[in-house]
Amino acid sequence: MNRKFSDILAISLLAVLLASCGSGKMMGPVMPPPMAQNPEFLFVANTNSNTVSSFEIDSSGMLLSIGSFPAGASPEFMATDAAGKFLFVGNTASNNVSAFQIDKATGKLTPVAGSPFATGTQPEGMALVSGANLLFVANNIGNSISAFHIDHMSNAVSPFSVDPIRGSLSPVTPLPALSQNCSSTCHTNPLRVAIHPTARLAFVADVGANSVSSFAISNGVLTLAAGPIPTGQHPFGVATDPSGKFVYVVNKLDNNIAAFSVDTMTGALTPLANSPVPAGGSEPVGIVTVRPQ
To answer: Each residue of 113-135: pLDDT tens digit?
Structure first.
């Protein structure tokens, strides 16, 4: 080997060794940076402004506003698929479902092709069977259930009974008509429930008492664990974040979101600093959280 070249090589190697030394020890192997966890998002249906507000949930549980997105008339109930790719919103006054694709990096919502999709009259309750790519919508005034396949969103004639194994649908006798009048009891009883990811706790929005209550679940039995905890005026929707660290309640008359940390052992709820935060729309009623995969 050429002497001049070998000297240069030795000097170069020495420089590399010196750069990688610390306190007389060789530097260990370079470790790849930890994989960033997908962000968590929260969506709120604003029934009076006909929009869906999007928020990012930061590590402390606080909500960072992303923006508001147009839905149909009087959006209320919502559902997401297991992978967190899509958000479905029932529009109770326009009798249809808005379907959005969720940007897993930004939380922004983009309407899917063909959205919104017609349902029966006054769609409210929603259930999504991700394994079968099926979305079921309960139509309150129509006394029926609309069924959609997520990949083609072709709605079927309702009402149906559902085969619990195959997910097949069969026509059934229509349900009896419900009263169109809502007495004062509609706004004094516990309204909506969210189950903790561990399935050991349940959180109930007490719309008449302006509070949220926490219950322990054991063998299907509910026992009051904590509460009632003050929220705001007319708390409607309630949800936990995917990690199970936080609980969020939308207050319809205050147009805001109350945020709480959760003691997973006792079920106790503690208001977060700077809570509540604006809901980003008028008369928020529905709320869901998701961590896109």
So the answer is: 888 888 888 988 888 776 677 78
**CA distances to 148, 169, 183, 190, 224 from 186, in Å:** 30, 32, 6, 9, 22
Q: What does the mean pLDDT of the chain come to? A: 79
Overall pTM > 0.85: no
Question: Is it true that the peptide bond before 271 is cis, omega within 30 degrees of 0?
Answer: no
The answer to whether 81 and 288 are in contact (CB under 8 A) is no
Residue 52 makes CB contacts below 8 A (sequence gap 6+) with 43, 44, 45, 46, 68, 69, 71, 75, 78, 87, 89, 98, 100, 109, 281
pLDDT digits (tens, 9 = 90+) for 62-83: 999 999 999 999 999 998 888 8
HSE-CB for 161 with a 13 A CA cutoff: 7
51 Cβ partners below 8 Å, 6+ apart?
68, 69, 70, 71, 75, 280, 281
Residue 110, φ and ψ in degrees, nearest 5: -125, 125
Nearest to 133 by CA among 147, 113, 119, 150: 150
